[in-house]
Structures are given as structure tokens and as C-alpha cells.
Design brief:
Strand content: under 5%
Distance between the termini: 22 Å
Structural class: mainly alpha
Largest sheet: none
Number of helices: 16
Order of helices and strands: HHHHHHHHHHHHHHHH
Amino acid sequence: MLSRTADHLYWMSRYTERAENTARMLNVSYETSMLPQSASAATKAWQSVLSISELLPAYYERHDEITLDGVLHFMVRDETNTSSIYSCLLAARENARAVRGALTTEAWETLNMTWLDMSRWFKAKKFETDPAKFFEWVKLRSHLSRGVVSGTMLQDDAFLFLRLGTFIERADNTARLLDVRFHAVKNDYHGSFQPGKGPAPSDFYHWSSILRSVSAFEVYRKVYRNVITPERVAEMLILRRDMPRSLHASMYEVVQILEAVANDHSSETQRQAGLLLAELQYGRIDELLATGLHAFLVRFLERVHALGGRIGQDFLATSDEMAVA
């Protein structure tokens, strides 16, 4: 496959996944903001949303203070914010349009219709009327896009690079989400759970919001059948391979795909991905907490970023830049 084609497919899936992840995060934060809370707590919550995407400086360039409306506009439909849902879906569509011949008609039409429908949402001001419904729509369109790709495309290199972009982006997002949410509790979380005790009642919404943002609340109840504790939240979203959005599950898929698309230059990239997977495959949550969760997640994010750069060098026409602006 031509590196330029692989590049467009890889970034098409990364931007689609990023739009979904942003919608997930905003949906949970918006619903939580409806609960009784102080003004300072509300501001801190929306500040964490911006911190997850490393957008605080960019936000303050356009706004004087953090407000619900300001953050929603900035993260959803601000065309100058390259990480807004608008910008992500635009980038995904443009990358897809550049390689329409590598996609099935159904895959292209699904992504194109997502863009057209989003434009209608904004034109009719339906987003302002019901933000939660819009976020659910973004998630649904992302699910539909992945389903159409899996159900209609030949499972060749094009299909593999689409999946590679999805799981690299997912690993990055889950790690950022965990780091910011745990950092809000302690600068570096080393664990504090004692048998027979759970988190304080006021903490329930904090930890459950993390689970809900990755559709893991019901799964947590099924697996642990107990109160929500920060240690178990971390374990589920870091080490469990059977949790679809965990770091382990994402890196497992990345390693499998890299093996399938390997070339003469990619052995070091495969080795680094394999080392990262091994730490997740054989790690234990108490060992991770002993050295500090923040320290682990920062290191994980640095390694995933480096891995993305190596993927760009080994396979793609560009590395960590938008393929089509």
C-alpha cells in the first residue's frame, strides 16, 4: 500500500475516534454539571475537560473565564480548535475523500453523511437545545462508521491501518482521562483502599463519571459486584484486556496489527509496542500504584506518542500531523 493512502486511512480513523472520545467526555461532564455543586467545583470540572485534551492555553486565548457554554462551544463547534468535534469530523471526512478508492461505498457514505448531518445540527441550532442528544448522536455515528468498515471492507492493509489509528487514539485518550481524573484527587495516586471500605459518598459521582465516559459502568458492576473504588477503576481501565477501551486491550490490538503490516523498517516499532504490551499483560495494579499512577500514565503517554511517531516514520507519509487540514 502507498504510504500516502495508509496515512489518510490512519488519520481518518484517529479523528473519528477522537470525535467520539470528546463526545463521551463532554456528555458525562454535561450531565454531571446538572447536579447540585458549588461554582468553584463546576469550574474545576470543566477545567479538567480542557486539561485532558491539553487545551487550556488555547481556550484562554479565546475566552476570559471557564464557563459551561464557553467550553461546550470551544470543544464542539469552534472551527479554530483542531480538536473540536467539528474539526475532527471535518478532518476525518477530508482524509476519507482523499482515498475514496480504498474505501467501500458504504464506508465513505457513512462518514460523509455524518458530516452533512452535523452541519444540519448546527444550522438548526439543535445542539444548543439538547447537547446530550448531540453527544449520543456523535457516539452512534462513530459506532456505525466502525461497524460499516468491519462489515464491508476487505480485511487487507487498508482495513488494518484504519484499525491501527483507532486503537492508538483510544489508548492515548483513556490514559489522558485516567491521569487527569486521578490527578484531581491526588498529585500522584498510590492507592488508599482498605478492605470493607469504599470511597466516600461524595466521591461516587467522580469515579462513576470515569466509568461512564468509557461505557464501563455496567461492566464494572458485572465484574466486581461491589462498591466503586479508585483502585478497581484503574485496574479495569489499565490492565483488563476484556475491557474494550482499556490500555491493555488497545495495545494488544496495536501489536497484532503491527505484526500484520510489518515491513523491513518496523522491527524497532514492533519491539517498543511489544514491551509496552508486556507491562500491561503481566503488570499488577498494586505494583503500578506503588510507583504512583500519575508517573505510570505520564510515561505511558510519552511512549504511545513516540510509538505514533515511529508508525509515521515506518509506514506513513506524515507522522504526527493532520494528513488533510
